[in-house]
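RETRY 2/3 - previous attempt timed out on the joint model. Re-submitting the same 969-residue input unchanged.
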Amino acid sequence: MQLISLQFLIFLPIVALLNYIIPARFRYIWLFLTSACFYASLDVKGIPVLLFTIITTYVSGLIMEKKEGNIRKAVLFIAVILNLSVLGMSKYSGISLFGAIGISFFMFMAISYCGDVYKGKTAAEKNIVRYALFVSFFPNVTSGPIERAGHMIPQFKEPKDFDYERMRDGLLQMLWGYFMKLIIADRCAILVASIYANPEEFAGTATLVGSILYTFEIYCDFAGYSNIAIGCAKVLGYDLIKNFDSPYLSESIAEFWRRWHISLSTWFRDYVYIPLGGNRKGTVRKYINVLIVFLLSGIWHGAGLSFAMWGLLHGMYQVLGFVFKPIRDKFCSIFNVDRKSFSHRLLRIVITFMLVNIAWIFFRVTDFKAAIYMVSHLFIPDPGFITEGRLYNLGLDRPNVLLLAASIDLLIAADIANLAGISIREKIAGQGIWLRWFIYIAAVVLVVTCGIWGPGYDETGFIYVQF
Amino acid sequence: MKKKLGLFLKTILFLVLLGSALMAAMLVTERKSSYIKNRAFFDEAKKDHLDVLLLGSSHVIDGINPLVLYDDYGITSYNLGGHGSVMQETYWTLIRALDYVKPDYVIVDCYMMEKNYQYLDVMDEGASQDMINASVKQLHLNMDAFPLSRLKIAALDELIQSREIKNQFLCDFIVYHDRWSEIDRNDFARLTDSGDTNKLMGAEMQYGVKTDVDVYEPCQEGEVLPEHTVGEEYLMKIIDECQRDGIGILLVYLPFSAETKDQITANTVQLVADKYGVPYINMLKTEGVIDEAADLNDHGHLNVQGAYKVTEYLGQYLNENADLPDHRGEEGYDNWDKLVKRSKKDLNNMILDGSELRLELSLLSNTGYNSIIYINTESPALEDEGIRHLIANISGTSRIYEAAENKEAYILVNDVGLGKKYEAVGGEVLEGFDTSMGSMTYIPVEKKFRLLYPTADESINYLYDDEHTDKDIQILIYENKGDAPAAHLYYESQLREYQDQY
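RETRY 2/3 succeeded.
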């Protein structure tokens, strides 16, 4: 049962209905049971791994809270090493025994819990069912957001009562997530698969189009999932942290990482970058720390050289950004560039987008040489790919390509509004009933009718589920 | 409390509106072929107007025309044949139909009874994925129009193995939502139930004319299938069902270019018919029903003329053997009269349009139109056995072969009104011959010039005009004296592609 399956659309209302009927103090038990069922429906053989993580980190938390000094450190070390070993064997050894859906996500949540208990940022949770719910909460167990115990466990202890507005907002966020996934990401995926399958055949403009489409595909796939997960949790009365915040409108790579997969970036910041010394131990050490964090981030996604290269590229972007900052500042000063002007900001957004876009090429390909080939052929002009209609021969006909283009425009508009602090969901909710309902109904009909689903569709195909 | 109640009612209203919008989207995106095919069935069944059901595969769809049965015998029937339908699907088509109507008689074509597999999405070892996909797609034609019911679910359980594919039949929106990019006005007309529907009571006429005859090794006399097949099992179920419900049944094996295996299957059906004591007509062995060199659309399917002949034959059988009422002129059957009229009008327009030479010759051989067919000296059409055969079917003589032998000009006047035929070959003159247009004269002069005129008015020449000197075949269709020909068709037979260029 995936978040985009019909079974889930039946499962969620039943879970939500009973969730609000059951007395508040017992809800966590109900949610844990449903989360366990949800996980079992996805990956029964992963349950031992999930239980292993829950039990080892739960016991570690209890011990760390009771003990002091080196014993706490040793327990933290053992808990982290044990879990990272299983994670490492799962991802890099190919031993299926250790494999489990969402392992990278729920283990990072459990490890962060241990770190927080160790630092005294959060109290150890005594109730193992409640703790198990934190690790396995079904909306975010497979692909995040990577939550923190300090944020979730208090919510499970004191669940909110039913709130119509919250429910509506959650459903709308889910709908937006389905739009991103089924209308944009899965449409992009069809064109991207054709182009990336034969980079040499599509050298030139097609490569540029393909790479940009992949940049939108991975965003809409992952942010779409996050929106569904966050909306789903909201329907049940819980808040998950924001995972994406208009990332492609960032004006620098550093800003991009404050807006992209926020729960992972902050995790690496809090549990790797800062413990390594962050920027407190000099400039060179800071650069090294940045490179380490991004290399680890790349490796977290998978064992391939491409992932490591993708992470390193982002690390290098940032380091070079620091190194060249004085030169850029000088340049702006000499030419009297207004850094706050629209044109300058737009230029920065475009450059950042293209740097991210190039890095995604390494992320997508399995063959390193193919990535180099694609990057070197990215800007060879071949307008015939679009003007002669070759674009329409890659699995999507003209109406589908037009729908994709219009949908990406809508996505960009929504991200701009988000950046400006405008909540489109709130704006719609503030409209009169008939317009509001018309928008809701039209959106559902659009997603259901024009979404890519049905025979041959792989509903397990969220890109980040594999991580 | 009041606020909560208001909220609850608003939610219910919203869900109703949302459900309606989704239902509308489902209707609009739905592939309309099943609706088009079966819409009239539901109407006629509701009025209890259907005395006969016609069941089988595409051989039935293309081979039996309910409007001919009505026009010539007053028998009301519906063609429920399904493209690619094997016997188990034919059985379930009958069962579904019986939920709506109780016919007096059922005609079942037994083509593909040799098929020995249960599930359409599995088939047998030799089946390719494309064949399976086509088979599942064809099943949609038969099933989609029938609403979800226990019968439909039971049918799917016997026809489809995969749960995923079954779901696509239980909610076809799973498959058809992708049609959003191709929907047109007719798709939206589905919302008001006013879209295009089949006008031949479920039949579809084919208009190709296959003149080359396929030759297959004949099976041994009385040779039958070596094993009991799934198809045979379901044929027996069909007979059981009909006999239990007191419905008359006629088994048939409609004619086509039958391969050896088909001939064996046709023989085997006789055993089943004998076992149950039901009538069976094996049309592969029935002489004189169709002309294989003129009445087939392709290897397996009858064309419009073949369908007419087969339907006539079956109508005659029913007339003599089944006690079925003649509904012609009865109150409440106006729709049938209108459809017959419309069908004839369409056919007449097709004849006057004459877009394809073989079809034109085929239609002229069996309709009430007076026609003049002229083929010029050295026309490639004279070397075409198919064309010669079709012309000989009209003339009833072999003079076209005589013309072909010396590549000479040929003219045939087929005056149906007067019941007279005239032919001339080479330099032969036809002087003052009687036609429905009056007395006419034909004089061949030279290759590019010949005369055909009313004997009383030599200023007219029907067989020559400057614009069409390169066209080697002409057909005139005419009616009465004093009227200009209803149609004057020109064809060019180079490369044996007979194109209308008039």
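The mean pLDDT of chain A is 91. Closing ticket.
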